[in-house]
Design a protein that fits this description.
By secondary structure, this protein is an alpha/beta fold. The chain folds into two domains: 2-62 and 185-214, Response regulator (Rossmann fold); 66-183 and 217-244, Rossmann fold (3-Layer(aba) Sandwich). The chain has eleven helices and ten strands. The chain has helices at residues 2-7, 18-27, 66-77, 95-109, 121-134, 145-148, 151-160, 170-174, 185-200, 222-227, 234-239; strands at residues 13-15, 33-37, 56-60, 83-88, 112-117, 138-141, 165-167, 179-183, 216-221, 242-244. The strands form two sheets. A seven-stranded mixed sheet has the order 5-4-6-7-8-9-10, with helices on both faces. A three-stranded parallel sheet has the order 1-2-3, sandwiched between helices. Helix 3 (66-77) crosses helix 4.
Protein backbone atom coordinates (compact mmCIF):
# COMPACT_ATOMS: atom_id res chain seq x y z
CA UNK A 1 0.00 0.00 0.00
CA UNK A 2 2.87 2.39 0.77
CA UNK A 3 4.51 1.60 -2.57
CA UNK A 4 1.19 2.24 -4.31
CA UNK A 5 0.93 5.69 -2.71
CA UNK A 6 4.48 6.50 -3.79
CA UNK A 7 3.64 5.34 -7.31
CA UNK A 8 0.69 7.74 -7.35
CA UNK A 9 3.10 10.57 -6.49
CA UNK A 10 0.98 11.83 -3.60
CA UNK A 11 2.01 15.11 -1.94
CA UNK A 12 2.12 13.72 1.61
CA UNK A 13 1.54 10.39 3.36
CA UNK A 14 -0.20 10.25 6.76
CA UNK A 15 0.69 7.13 8.74
CA UNK A 16 -1.14 6.61 12.03
CA UNK A 17 0.50 3.41 13.24
CA UNK A 18 4.09 2.26 13.61
CA UNK A 19 3.86 -0.48 10.91
CA UNK A 20 2.41 1.97 8.38
CA UNK A 21 5.00 4.64 9.24
CA UNK A 22 7.86 2.16 8.86
CA UNK A 23 6.42 0.93 5.55
CA UNK A 24 6.11 4.49 4.26
CA UNK A 25 9.67 5.30 5.34
CA UNK A 26 10.95 2.24 3.46
CA UNK A 27 8.97 3.19 0.38
CA UNK A 28 10.18 6.78 -0.04
CA UNK A 29 12.87 9.17 1.13
CA UNK A 30 11.42 12.17 -0.69
CA UNK A 31 7.63 12.30 -0.20
CA UNK A 32 6.80 13.93 3.18
CA UNK A 33 5.42 11.51 5.79
CA UNK A 34 3.44 12.65 8.84
CA UNK A 35 3.00 10.06 11.59
CA UNK A 36 1.22 9.63 14.89
CA UNK A 37 3.04 6.80 16.67
CA UNK A 38 4.60 5.81 19.99
CA UNK A 39 8.32 6.60 20.17
CA UNK A 40 9.49 7.68 16.68
CA UNK A 41 13.12 8.24 17.70
CA UNK A 42 13.40 4.82 19.36
CA UNK A 43 12.15 3.12 16.19
CA UNK A 44 14.39 5.09 13.84
CA UNK A 45 11.70 7.18 12.16
CA UNK A 46 13.47 10.43 13.04
CA UNK A 47 16.94 11.47 14.17
CA UNK A 48 15.52 13.20 17.23
CA UNK A 49 12.23 14.72 18.34
CA UNK A 50 13.59 18.27 18.17
CA UNK A 51 15.33 17.80 14.82
CA UNK A 52 13.58 15.09 12.80
CA UNK A 53 15.72 15.48 9.68
CA UNK A 54 14.73 13.61 6.55
CA UNK A 55 11.18 13.43 5.24
CA UNK A 56 9.29 12.37 8.39
CA UNK A 57 7.71 14.23 11.30
CA UNK A 58 4.48 14.14 13.26
CA UNK A 59 3.24 13.45 16.78
CA UNK A 60 4.46 11.07 19.47
CA UNK A 61 1.90 9.44 21.75
CA UNK A 62 4.19 7.65 24.16
CA UNK A 63 5.02 8.74 27.68
CA UNK A 64 6.61 5.64 29.25
CA UNK A 65 6.86 7.14 32.73
CA UNK A 66 3.05 7.34 32.91
CA UNK A 67 2.85 3.61 33.60
CA UNK A 68 3.84 4.23 37.22
CA UNK A 69 1.09 6.84 37.52
CA UNK A 70 -1.39 4.29 36.13
CA UNK A 71 -0.41 1.83 38.86
CA UNK A 72 -0.83 4.56 41.49
CA UNK A 73 -4.34 5.38 40.25
CA UNK A 74 -5.31 1.70 40.03
CA UNK A 75 -4.09 1.05 43.58
CA UNK A 76 -6.13 4.03 44.73
CA UNK A 77 -9.24 2.67 43.01
CA UNK A 78 -8.71 -0.94 44.15
CA UNK A 79 -6.82 -0.64 47.47
CA UNK A 80 -7.58 -4.24 48.43
CA UNK A 81 -5.58 -5.59 45.48
CA UNK A 82 -2.13 -6.58 46.73
CA UNK A 83 -1.21 -8.58 43.62
CA UNK A 84 -1.22 -6.77 40.28
CA UNK A 85 -0.71 -8.17 36.77
CA UNK A 86 0.83 -6.30 33.85
CA UNK A 87 -0.10 -7.37 30.31
CA UNK A 88 2.50 -6.49 27.67
CA UNK A 89 3.48 -7.39 24.13
CA UNK A 90 7.03 -8.81 24.37
CA UNK A 91 7.74 -7.69 20.80
CA UNK A 92 7.28 -4.02 21.66
CA UNK A 93 10.59 -2.17 22.01
CA UNK A 94 9.28 -0.23 25.03
CA UNK A 95 8.21 -3.33 26.98
CA UNK A 96 11.45 -3.80 28.90
CA UNK A 97 11.43 -0.21 30.14
CA UNK A 98 7.74 -0.36 31.06
CA UNK A 99 8.19 -3.59 33.01
CA UNK A 100 11.17 -2.16 34.89
CA UNK A 101 9.35 1.06 35.75
CA UNK A 102 6.26 -0.78 36.98
CA UNK A 103 8.27 -3.30 39.01
CA UNK A 104 9.98 -0.43 40.81
CA UNK A 105 6.66 1.33 41.41
CA UNK A 106 5.10 -1.89 42.71
CA UNK A 107 7.98 -2.46 45.14
CA UNK A 108 7.61 1.07 46.46
CA UNK A 109 3.94 0.41 47.18
CA UNK A 110 4.55 -3.07 48.62
CA UNK A 111 2.62 -4.72 45.79
CA UNK A 112 3.40 -8.00 44.06
CA UNK A 113 3.63 -7.70 40.29
CA UNK A 114 3.24 -10.50 37.73
CA UNK A 115 4.15 -9.82 34.10
CA UNK A 116 1.95 -11.50 31.48
CA UNK A 117 3.01 -11.53 27.82
CA UNK A 118 0.83 -11.71 24.74
CA UNK A 119 1.72 -11.18 21.09
CA UNK A 120 -1.15 -13.15 19.52
CA UNK A 121 -4.80 -13.99 20.17
CA UNK A 122 -4.24 -17.28 21.99
CA UNK A 123 -1.67 -15.73 24.32
CA UNK A 124 -4.20 -13.07 25.29
CA UNK A 125 -6.64 -15.79 26.34
CA UNK A 126 -3.89 -17.62 28.24
CA UNK A 127 -2.86 -14.44 30.04
CA UNK A 128 -6.37 -13.76 31.30
CA UNK A 129 -6.86 -17.38 32.34
CA UNK A 130 -3.71 -17.15 34.47
CA UNK A 131 -5.06 -14.14 36.38
CA UNK A 132 -7.17 -16.49 38.50
CA UNK A 133 -4.23 -18.76 39.31
CA UNK A 134 -2.09 -15.75 40.24
CA UNK A 135 -4.87 -14.32 42.45
CA UNK A 136 -4.34 -10.97 40.72
CA UNK A 137 -6.69 -8.33 42.07
CA UNK A 138 -6.16 -5.86 39.23
CA UNK A 139 -4.55 -5.53 35.79
CA UNK A 140 -2.51 -2.88 34.01
CA UNK A 141 -2.56 -3.13 30.20
CA UNK A 142 0.70 -1.90 28.67
CA UNK A 143 0.67 0.48 25.72
CA UNK A 144 1.01 -1.37 22.41
CA UNK A 145 -0.40 -1.26 18.89
CA UNK A 146 -1.26 -4.98 18.85
CA UNK A 147 -3.10 -4.73 22.17
CA UNK A 148 -4.95 -1.53 21.26
CA UNK A 149 -6.11 -3.28 18.09
CA UNK A 150 -7.77 -5.89 20.36
CA UNK A 151 -9.48 -3.25 22.52
CA UNK A 152 -12.94 -4.86 22.47
CA UNK A 153 -11.51 -8.29 23.22
CA UNK A 154 -9.44 -7.08 26.17
CA UNK A 155 -12.38 -5.20 27.67
CA UNK A 156 -14.66 -8.23 27.24
CA UNK A 157 -12.13 -10.57 28.88
CA UNK A 158 -11.60 -8.17 31.79
CA UNK A 159 -15.38 -8.10 32.27
CA UNK A 160 -15.71 -11.90 32.01
CA UNK A 161 -12.96 -12.43 34.60
CA UNK A 162 -14.25 -9.54 36.75
CA UNK A 163 -10.78 -7.98 36.97
CA UNK A 164 -10.40 -4.21 37.42
CA UNK A 165 -8.17 -3.06 34.56
CA UNK A 166 -6.24 0.14 33.84
CA UNK A 167 -5.75 1.15 30.20
CA UNK A 168 -3.85 3.89 28.39
CA UNK A 169 -6.46 5.31 25.95
CA UNK A 170 -9.92 6.65 26.80
CA UNK A 171 -11.20 4.57 23.88
CA UNK A 172 -10.85 1.45 26.04
CA UNK A 173 -13.09 3.02 28.69
CA UNK A 174 -15.58 4.17 26.06
CA UNK A 175 -15.77 0.50 25.02
CA UNK A 176 -16.63 -0.57 28.58
CA UNK A 177 -13.20 -0.68 30.22
CA UNK A 178 -12.85 0.52 33.82
CA UNK A 179 -10.29 3.33 33.84
CA UNK A 180 -7.60 4.89 31.66
CA UNK A 181 -4.90 7.50 31.99
CA UNK A 182 -2.79 8.76 29.14
CA UNK A 183 -2.39 11.16 26.23
CA UNK A 184 -5.34 12.12 24.05
CA UNK A 185 -5.41 10.25 20.74
CA UNK A 186 -7.71 12.94 19.36
CA UNK A 187 -5.15 15.62 20.19
CA UNK A 188 -2.32 13.58 18.65
CA UNK A 189 -4.24 13.08 15.41
CA UNK A 190 -5.15 16.77 15.38
CA UNK A 191 -1.46 17.71 15.77
CA UNK A 192 -0.56 15.40 12.89
CA UNK A 193 -3.35 16.89 10.77
CA UNK A 194 -2.01 20.38 11.42
CA UNK A 195 1.41 19.25 10.19
CA UNK A 196 -0.11 17.78 7.03
CA UNK A 197 -1.63 21.20 6.36
CA UNK A 198 1.69 22.98 6.93
CA UNK A 199 3.53 20.60 4.60
CA UNK A 200 0.90 21.04 1.88
CA UNK A 201 1.54 24.77 2.18
CA UNK A 202 5.26 24.29 1.57
CA UNK A 203 6.94 23.63 4.93
CA UNK A 204 9.51 20.82 5.22
CA UNK A 205 9.18 17.84 7.62
CA UNK A 206 12.82 18.27 8.66
CA UNK A 207 11.97 21.73 10.03
CA UNK A 208 8.94 20.62 12.06
CA UNK A 209 9.84 19.13 15.49
CA UNK A 210 7.91 16.05 16.57
CA UNK A 211 4.98 17.10 18.75
CA UNK A 212 4.80 15.51 22.20
CA UNK A 213 1.70 14.97 24.36
CA UNK A 214 0.59 18.00 26.33
CA UNK A 215 -2.81 16.76 27.50
CA UNK A 216 -3.40 13.71 29.66
CA UNK A 217 -6.86 12.30 30.33
CA UNK A 218 -8.13 10.43 33.37
CA UNK A 219 -11.31 8.65 32.29
CA UNK A 220 -13.44 6.26 34.33
CA UNK A 221 -16.50 4.17 33.45
CA UNK A 222 -18.86 4.40 36.43
CA UNK A 223 -21.12 1.65 35.12
CA UNK A 224 -18.18 -0.76 34.89
CA UNK A 225 -17.04 0.22 38.38
CA UNK A 226 -20.50 -0.54 39.72
CA UNK A 227 -20.56 -3.92 37.94
CA UNK A 228 -17.24 -4.77 39.62
CA UNK A 229 -18.58 -3.69 43.02
CA UNK A 230 -16.11 -0.82 43.30
CA UNK A 231 -16.71 2.44 45.09
CA UNK A 232 -14.83 5.13 43.21
CA UNK A 233 -12.98 7.38 45.69
CA UNK A 234 -13.79 11.07 45.66
CA UNK A 235 -10.11 11.75 45.02
CA UNK A 236 -10.41 10.06 41.62
CA UNK A 237 -13.83 11.51 40.81
CA UNK A 238 -12.53 15.02 41.44
CA UNK A 239 -9.54 14.52 39.16
CA UNK A 240 -11.38 12.70 36.37
CA UNK A 241 -11.48 14.49 33.03
CA UNK A 242 -14.42 12.36 31.95
CA UNK A 243 -16.86 10.00 33.67
CA UNK A 244 -18.74 7.60 31.42
CA UNK A 245 -22.11 6.42 32.66
Amino acid sequence: MAADLVGRKVDVIAAFSLPSALAAKSATSTIPIVFSVGDPAERGLVGSLARPGGNLTGASTIVPELISKRLELLAELVPQARTIALLVNPNNSNTERSVGDLQEAARTKGLQLHVLKASNESEIDTAFASLVQLHAGALVVGGDTFLSGRRERLVALASRHAVPAMYYWREFVASGGLISYGPSLTSAFSQAGTYVGKILKGEKPADLPVQQPTRFELVINLKTAQALGLTVPQSILQRADEMIE
